[in-house]
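Renewal narrative, Specific Aim 1. Our central claim is that a sequence can be written position by position from structural information alone. The example that follows is taken directly from our test logs and has not been curated for this report. It begins with the structure tokens describing the chain, in the order in which they were read.
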């Protein structure tokens, strides 16, 4: 299936609807497509048939049924737009080229390809992946996690709480965990992990090229030997911009692979091309809720432009101060706000029980509870 169309975009009172093409169906792309589908002729280009709530993926590894709610078919919220199931491989001033050779014409383009994270095309395949990873964890007596950023910390917390009998080792090359936030939050997180018997090794790395999961032996940069039945790599992923390097946007990509945007979230030098979410060079922590703020600002600005409004009426996006909540298992979390740092049940109440899954589903116009298909 290359394309899905629930209903064609009709003509609006003032003329034909503008064609808005959104490339990338992640946190930002799904929300902007949903937000504009009744004001424009919207096409969403994504290689998979579903939207995945990324921060919920770690719990899905320990509880596969959790993914039933956190994996959402694009067609369930995109009821008045088109879905092209393909990878975008190039763009021109007016068209996007897909891997199958399809040309999709646009008046306005939104790039929301985030980070490069290859996932299965179908929801059922992704659910099977979670089941397989769950079985790996369940059958292992020891687990190695490489990377002490939010992904590695949250996965260690999920496993330590759900499988307290497992030996969990977390190796991080930095001098402290969660280096993107303050040392107080990092120290509290380290203490919490140790209280759950997670062994944390800082200032070390693991050369996975010279390790074999078949023999369960891993060697750290300091020469320590770690025996683990399975391992998970939770280090940073490259930006999803490689496909842009030979396009009209090749000079708009910075050295980190991020698109340079102005205060209105338009790609610098282009009036009709926006970029939102993790792929932008906005100077702030890359977080899902900020990507959603990008989507809402860009949607507002696109509505202004499509109505022929003046640029001065467009909204500006202002980078937000640090507000971070990192879940630690089912009940606890560590939170850093501008004026305070908290750990335990109070910040856990904010995020950890449901990981905002119900809230995201509601935002997309869906039942926040589990719905059978």
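The sequence written for that structure reads:
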């Amino acid at each position: 299936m290359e394309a899905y169309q629930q209903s064609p975009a009709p003509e609006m009172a003032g003329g034909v609807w503008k064609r808005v093409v959104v490339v990338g169906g992640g946190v930002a792309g799904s929300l902007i497509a949903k937000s504009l589908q009744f004001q424009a002729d919207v096409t969403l280009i994504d290689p998979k048939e579903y939207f995945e709530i990324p921060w919920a993926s770690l719990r899905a590894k320990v509880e596969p049924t959790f993914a039933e709610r956190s994996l959402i078919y694009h067609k369930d919220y995109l009821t008045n737009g088109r879905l092209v199931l393909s990878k975008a491989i190039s763009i021109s001033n007016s068209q996007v080229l897909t891997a199958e050779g399809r040309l999709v014409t646009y008046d306005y383009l939104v790039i929301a390809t985030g980070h490069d994270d290859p996932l299965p095309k179908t929801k059922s395949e992704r659910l099977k992946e979670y089941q397989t990873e769950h079985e790996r964890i369940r059958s292992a007596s020891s687990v190695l996690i490489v990377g002490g950023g939010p992904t590695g910390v949250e996965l260690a917390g999920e496993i330590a709480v759900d499988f307290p009998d497992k030996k969990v080792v977390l190796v991080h090359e930095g001098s402290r965990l969660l280096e993107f936030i303050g040392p107080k939050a990092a120290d509290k997180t380290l203490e919490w992990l140790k209280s759950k018997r997670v062994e944390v090794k800082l200032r070390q790395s693991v050369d996975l090229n010279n390790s074999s999961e078949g023999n369960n032996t891993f060697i750290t940069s300091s020469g320590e030997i770690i025996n683990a039945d399975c391992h998970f790599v939770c280090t940073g992923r490259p930006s999803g911009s490689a496909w842009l390097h030979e396009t009209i946007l090749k000079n708009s990509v910075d050295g980190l692979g991020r698109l340079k945007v102005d205060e209105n979230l338009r790609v610098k030098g282009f009036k009709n091309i926006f970029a939102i979410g993790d792929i932008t060079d906005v100077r702030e922590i890359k977080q899902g809720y900020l990507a959603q703020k990008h989507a809402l600002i860009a949607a507002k600005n696109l509505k202004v432009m499509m109505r022929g409004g003046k640029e001065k009426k467009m909204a500006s996006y202002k980078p937000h101060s640090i507000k971070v909540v990192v879940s630690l298992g089912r009940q606890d979390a560590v939170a850093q706000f501008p004026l305070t740092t908290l750990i335990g049940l109070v910040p856990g109440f904010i995020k950890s029980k449901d990981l905002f899954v119900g809230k995201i589903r509601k935002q997309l116009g869906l039942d926040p509870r589990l719905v059978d298909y």
